[in-house]
User: What shape does this take?
Amino acid sequence: MSLEIKNLHVRIEEREILHGVDLTVEKGQTHALMGPNGSGKSTLANTIMGNPNYEVTDGQILFNGDDITEADPDERARAGLFMAFQYPATIPGVSVANFLRLAVNARRDEPMKVKDFGKFMRENVDMLKIDPSFVSRYLNEGFSGGEKKRAEILQMAMLKPEIAVLDETDSGLDIDALRVVADGVNALTGPDLGSLIITHYTRILNYVRPQFVHIMLDGRVVREGGPELADELEEKGYDFVREEVAAGNA
Assistant: This one.
């Protein structure tokens, strides 16, 4: 079970953002994709999930061996892909619980019975140490940054995706909210979940330790390694990668 990106070229309007990205995330693995602002990280995340504003001009996205390059976002979600957004949407009038029930049932052939769903939701709320009253609030309405991320991690827990993409989910969080996200991701990490954590900071990686680190610059993955690569990045910044790339192209 895997998400495989092959020679992916993506543009918005007439501007190409990704210039041939190759990346594979296997179920059970935790990957970090790092890069400065404007390097193409969020473009990759949105393209993986099928955002129609991003046009694939070459390459493929394969999920469990199936070509999903042209698949609709809902098809990808039902197949087992999940994305935690940098800026989750607010849905006034729809409670967290009702939203979760709709999302869970969208992936099932038969809707889950109300009693069974309630038990399932309580199990996940308890696992993630969330106040039970949280699920009765309208989705993201008046939520703090940390509460929005907590709602996304709860969605991830209940949808049980095979591959989860977390697009700068640590952005703008204080240390307490960051720990909420990290604790949730760590609680869900295991053989049944592959994760791609997209970030330009190393701080979340102090709490969620990836097995693989990829560095993106100017729409390309230019360096790959283990968790020690994130440590090196923390020490030296992105300039050392830029210098390596420039030297390789000289």
Remarks:
- Helices lie at 41-48, 73-79, 96-106, 114-127, 145-159, 175-188, 227-236, 239-249.
- The radius of gyration is 18 Å.
